[in-house]
Amino acid sequence: MIIVMRSGATAQQVAAVVRRVESMGFRAHLSEGEERTIIGVIGDERPIDPGIFELMEGVERTVPILRPFKLASRDFHPQDSVFSINGVTIGGKKLCIMAGPCAVESRQQILEVAHAVKEAGAHVLRGGAFKPRTSPYSFQGLGLRGLELLAEAREETGLPVVTEVMAPEAVSMVARYADILQIGTRNMQNFALLQAVGQVNKPVLLKRGMMSTIEELLMAAEYILANGNSRVILCERGIRTFEKYTRNTLDINAIPAIKQLTHLPVIADPSQGTGKWDLVVPVSRACIAAGADGLIIEVHPNPEEALSDQAQQIRPEVFAKLMEDLRALAGPLGREL
Ligand code: PEP
Ligand code: MN
To answer: Partner of 146 for a Cys bridge, out of 19, 104, 119, 203, CB 3.0 to 4.6 A?
Structure first.
């Protein structure tokens, strides 16, 4: 942190700030200019509240130098994190494509999609068993039965499965079936849930809150990392803006920005990000071009009969075509699929 003194701050005021810095176990580095004095606080200042100094006489402002997240930060871990989930690599050069229905609806539906996305080249099967719905009267998911069906689909196809967990009490049950635990946008700052998934030996797919900043997303990841789980995948899934034509505004800027700030893999969700099936393919290509390490895509055998997110789920044929496009894109971008 840098403490900028007001022009005209007295020597006593500067000395008082230096004493305060030193009393907290840090070193103070003084830089006396023509106009004003600047005090550098040397040491890991993250736990300090800058307000402590801003209240002191003669202080104009403080400027943080270290980022508030540590374990998630590239300063702490410069190389990309790469990890393997049942033989599937996430992070690094290889793209990881997750696909499947918004919700698991029946045995027939999940097995049909699982085979179709596997055939097209997907690496992970998605499907919600516990669905966070805006209305309590909407389909809430099949719950435990949905998890059993996902496990059956994994058995048949060999694809690892990702599914959402909505409550801390449900983490151990969902972790018995899922290969990756998904934290949805509505729970990005459910700190009890973040702590609970931090204590489990399963990778976590953490979705950006629909009204959260990039820094808040990284602070949420920090909760999981600080609780001992180093396998966190971040997901840009669109944020709320004034635009109503699309369901959300997929923040393409966030993809390279998050990758600059963190070593964790970053994927994108163009299905929730657009809310419109016919925008999913072009936006998927854009996300990969922007540097995403993978995608999570909603695929349904019969979208018009889906029990949730009808408008944004793509048919298996459209998904197969998307995979072809991505294969063509990967090479020129220095990626592999
Ligand atoms: C989903 O993946 O189906 C979902 C509900 O995602 P989000 O939390 O991003 O809305
Ligand atoms: Mn959905």
So the answer is: 104
Q: Is residue 76 part of a domain?
A: no
Q: Supply φ then ψ for residue 141, to 5 degrees.
A: 100, 160
Mean pLDDT value across residues 319-333: 98
Nearest residue by C-alpha to atom 6 in ligand 1: 184
Domain of residue 32 covers 2-63
Q: Which among 237, 250, 298, 314 is the best mutation to test ligand 1's pocket, defined by most ligand atoms within 8 Å of the CB?
A: 237
Q: Which residue's entry shows tokens 């946008």? A: 185
Please say whether the dihedral angle defined by the alpha carbons of residues 188, 160, 250 and 222, taken in this order, is positive or negative. Answer: positive
Task: Look at residue 69 and tell me if it is in a domain.
Answer: no
| pTM greater than 0.85 | yes
pLDDT value for 166:
98
Nearest CA-CA partner of 229 in 198, 193, 189: 198
DSSP assignment of 254-314 equals HHHHHHHHBSS-EEE-HHHHH--HHHHHHHHHHHHHTT-SEEEEEB-SSGGG-SS-GGGPB
